[in-house]
Amino acid sequence: MGGTHKTRVYAIVAGAVAVMAAGCITTTATTPEVGVIAGTISNSLGGGIANTTVTASSDSGGEYVSTTDSVGNYLITGVPDGNGSIGVGAVPVLCTQPASAAYDVIAMDTTRISITVTCN
Length: 120
What we know:
Layout: E1 9-13, E2 16-21, E3 24-29, E4 34-43, E5 53-58, E6 63-67, E7 73-80, E8 82-88, E9 101-105, E10 110-112, E11 115-117
Parallel strand pairs: 4-10, 4-11
Antiparallel strand pairs: 1-2, 2-3, 4-7, 5-6, 5-8, 8-9
């Protein structure tokens, strides 16, 4: 029996899937696995800390930044799977700069981390 048939060859090329059909190679980029970190930065006297920077520093080297809203809430999106630490920027006078908090982000999930800053 004569005839033709098509063969597809799949290969991983630098994080993308390559499909070879009829002598052409096309690539489809893979979507990175990311999650969200959300929480509140509050003071020990009972209020939120507005307009301060919150930075997620990934153990893999990236930094992801947000600013708290008027009641101290923040939301950091696009954080890749893995571990890292959350740091708080400037705090009000008479408040102590808090230590960084560790995080573990899992793709498509929201990790909640709230930090209380000690104030006198």
